[in-house]
Design goal:
With about 350 residues, the protein is an alpha/beta fold. The chain has a single domain, classed as Peptidoglycan recognition protein-like (Lysozyme-like, 3-Layer(aba) Sandwich). Helix content is about 25%, strand content about 15%. The protein contains ten helices and 14 strands. The protein has a six-stranded mixed sheet, with helices on both faces. The chain has a two-stranded antiparallel sheet with strand order 1-2. β6 and β7 form a beta hairpin. The radius of gyration is 24 Å and the shape is globular.
Amino acid sequence: MKQRDSVSPRLVSSFALLCLLVLTGCESLPRPGTPAPRRGDEIVVAGQLFHTGTPVVLWLDPGGYDAYRVERRFSAFDESSWETSKVVVKDLSSPNRYGLRKAGLTDDEIERVRGGGWDLPLLQEKVDQFVVHFDVAGTSRQCFKVLHDLRCLSVHFMLDLDGTIYQTLDLKERAWHATTSNTRSVGIEIANVGAYDSPDAGPLKEWYQPDSSGRARIVVPERYGATGIRTTGFVGRPARPEPVKGSVQGRELHQYDLTPQQYEALAKLTAALCKVFPKLKCDFPRDAAGKLVPGKLSDEDLERYQGVLGHYHIQSNKVDPGPAFQWETLIEGAREWMSRGAPVTQEKPAERMMRSRP
């Protein structure tokens, strides 16, 4: 009888190795020293990169704003140290302008994360609010100067007039921007000079001036020096040409709207955050009729609230983001961006490896 051919064990091993290489080839490590370029739209959450679909400048990037630094960013370099700063600026009470999100953590969790070791699932469990501010400073450059150099405060994001988003801290950090909501929130300061009792208020007249055709344009006063706006030749215009009148905290206020570029970028960032943080609902505080709540939430409602909200929903002495802020525009835009399957998912290490390969 004819003997059946046997398969060589060596051949089997070689075939198995080949299959393994085919299946895991995309996961192989790149050569040491190979750069892993970013696309320029990523935010950092617990050390991981997530896409937003809009330009983001990190504190790690040239021209970024680094809230981890203890020295003043805009003072003379030889006068910027903490030892000098704490004497010269009375409101600087701590070398660090941020802290640990420790509320709700066990002693073991605090010990684990206090050195920076947050894992994403734990952070996703703790963050459920996104707080929107106007900065009153007018530009992100001036905003960072006020927060970091003068007031011992911080915020995770700043949104400039041209729609550029700056991230100053990893979202694992507890930024100092919204008192009781700091532990559970992410915050953003939007470049806008704010809301006032009169449409003829000095800041509104100074910052919003008519061009030759009579259209309002944003003019950064010369005394501020360099604007820091990244888009060359950018001319900012409010989304609506006239000051908007509305009620916040029971006060009648006047404010120029954000720029269209700011609304677009903010919608994309909001979509990304709502994707990354499952507890963060893509909506704003509404009353029983479904309308915007134009003032502070009760302590009980604020404790229960999960979603996007304004600074004035948290503190009764605040009016930002103001009466001109278009909440429906923001939320509709963010929901549309989420439904498109836009690039707000985490970039996997294997994808970074593939893009970095020659």
